[in-house]
Amino acid sequence: MGIITIEELPARLTGGKTLAGLDLGDKTIGVAVSDQRFSFAHPRPVIMRRKFSLDAAVLLAMLQKENAGAVVIGLPINMDGSEGPRAQKSRAFVRNMAQISDLPFVLWDERLSTVAAERTLIEMDFSRRKRAGKIDSAAAAFILQGVLDRLQSLHASARTEPDPPSVV
């Protein structure tokens, strides 16, 4: 399927589907999944990266088990708004996934998601060792929660927009 916009997501998330979020790292893939009401992001165990075909097989099995209808992937944009090598790797990952899966992907600006996730884990008094094992899935949950909040906002604004004036 490839890349879609956030506005196209609701049409893909019917029939009890969930929304998944990914944080791609060099060594792991952080995963989070929404509830069916699209209110909360729940971290899942990280996928240890080996090679793309193996990573994709594990990821697709997990997404099927979680009944994911679409996937949000963090796009690591530089603070100045430019895209560097890490963003290019994320785009390449989506291109490769599109060749083997019909799931749509949404790219989401993930600036500072890992920093926010680490702060939260520190506040929860996780040791440095325990944080290392949870940081990527926590970052995926932050990315996904941002999208879920945006979807709620879009839904609320659609309900409050006045109907266009009727022509008599």
From TrEMBL:
Q: What is its main location?
A: cytoplasm
Q: Does the keyword tRNA-binding apply?
A: no
Q: Which UniProt keywords apply?
A: Cytoplasm, Hydrolase, Nuclease, Ribosome biogenesis
Residues of the signal peptide: none
Task: Name any one Pfam family assigned in the record.
Answer: RuvX
What is this enzyme's EC? 3.1.-.-
EC class: hydrolase
Against SUPFAM superfamilies, the record matches this protein to: Ribonuclease H-like
Could you tell me which residue ranges the YqgF/RNase H-like domain spans? Answer: 17-117
Cell compartment(s), UniProt: Cytoplasm
Which function does this protein serve? Could be a nuclease involved in processing of the 5'-end of pre-16S rRNA.
What PANTHER family does UniProt report for this protein, alphabetically? POLYNUCLEOTIDYL TRANSFERASE, RIBONUCLEASE H-LIKE SUPERFAMILY PROTEIN
* Family membership noted in the UniProt record: Belongs to the YqgF HJR family.
The record's listing under NCBIfam families reads:
RNAse_H_YqgF
HAMAP family for this protein: Nuclease_YqgF
The protein depicted here goes by the name Putative pre-16S rRNA nuclease
Q: What is the lineage of its organism?
A: Bacteria, Pseudomonadati, Pseudomonadota, Alphaproteobacteria, Hyphomicrobiales
Q: Which gene encodes it?
A: ruvX
